[in-house]
Amino acid sequence: MKPKRYQAVIEVLLRPGVFDPQGQAVTAALHALGHDAVEDVRVGKLVRVMVSAENAEAARALAEQMCRELLANPVLENYQVRVEEAGVAH
Amino acid sequence: MKPKRYQAVIEVLLRPGVFDPQGQAVTAALHALGHDAVEDVRVGKLVRVMVSAENAEAARALAEQMCRELLANPVLENYQVRVEEAGVAH
Asked: What is this model's ipTM?
């Protein structure tokens, strides 16, 4: 079967309780701009991987393996993977 | 009406065609780890904003305004906003 292209969108955020200075800086900047409704901001990474795989489950498994091996630090960060079909592999 | 807390998750990615050296570095690192199925990687920012608002539409409008004012550079970056209810504001 011809593999398909999938887009795996990986969201990496610091775990709750881990100090996030970048998030605090953004919170302060938003308050300075008058956005008083903002309570808290966390800033993380978004990694979009285009990958060829037999099916969406295989693409998800690959993406989760990449997170464990390289993309996330499991001590400090949580990650979440979302997979979407992106057409036929070329 | 008591405002509710919403979680606005903002995904910021470089526009197609804008050179992404961080994405290229991650692609090379994944290939070096044996992930040959990876075709392309783009690395962006994930911003999670906790905001109080009357309803989800208002929370989304606030988040989009924050993107235009501070969080994204419209020349180089695209953004996408997702809003989820997060409980009663305190």
From this structure: 0.90
| 3-state DSSP assignment of residue A75 | coil
Closest by alpha carbon to A17, among A46, A44, A42?
A: A42
Q: Is B60 on the interface with A (CB under 8 A)?
A: no
pLDDT at B82 over 80: yes
Closest-CA residue of chain B to A80 = B46
| Residue B20: C-alpha distances to residues A18, A65, B13, B51, B60 (Å) | 28, 23, 10, 31, 28
Q: How many whole angstroms separate alpha carbon B48 and alpha carbon B62?
A: 13
Domains of chain A listed by start with CATH number: 4-88 (3.30.1280.10)
Choose among B52, B73, B77, B74: nearest CA to B63.
B52
- A76 min Cα distance to partner chain B (Å): 16
Note the helical H segments in A1-90.
Answer: 21-32, 56-66
**Is residue A14 within 8 angstroms of chain B, CB to CB?**
no
Summarize pLDDT for A46-82 with one digit per residue, the tens.
999 999 999 999 999 999 999 999 999 999 999 999 9
Judge contact between A63 and A13, C-beta under 8 A.
Answer: no
How far A24 CA lies from chain B's nearest CA (Å)? 11
Contact B62 A35 (CB under 8 A): yes
